[in-house]
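> call design_seq(struct)
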């Protein structure tokens, strides 16, 4: 998922002529610790972009990696929905956050592809939330 998120974030920032600091938060779905590190590395190496000052990940926000055995994360759609619809919307309503780039991440799971030995493609789509 990290490569898809990196490309989506790069394309969005490039297409809109913006930089990471134009956003209060750039939020990814559930890359977890490993995916987040990979995202930052890919953005730096492949796209010469750094979002670390404004980036957070829903999976990292929900789980305590030291106390819970979640390895690199949980359910992308579950983490995204839980964090966005509660914590982030609440912060936007209060005025704490005014501009959030939400980049949902996921996998296109297909039993047919898997049985044929094909890779599972990662996807990411961006939604700009503004107050």
């Amino acid at each position: 998922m990290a490569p898809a998120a990196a490309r989506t974030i790069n394309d969005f920032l490039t297409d809109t002529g913006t930089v990471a600091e134009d956003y209060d938060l750039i939020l990814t779905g559930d890359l977890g610790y490993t995916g987040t590190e990979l995202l930052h590395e890919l953005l730096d190496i492949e796209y010469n972009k750094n979002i670390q000052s404004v980036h957070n990940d829903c999976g990292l926000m929900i789980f305590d990696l030291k106390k819970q055995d979640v390895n690199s994360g949980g359910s992308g759609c579950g983490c995204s929905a839980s964090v966005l619809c509660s914590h982030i919307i609440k912060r936007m309503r209060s005025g704490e956050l005014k501009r959030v780039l939400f980049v949902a991440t996921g996998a296109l799971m297909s039993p047919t592809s898997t049985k044929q030995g094909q890779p599972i493609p990662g996807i990411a789509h961006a939604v700009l939330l503004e107050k």
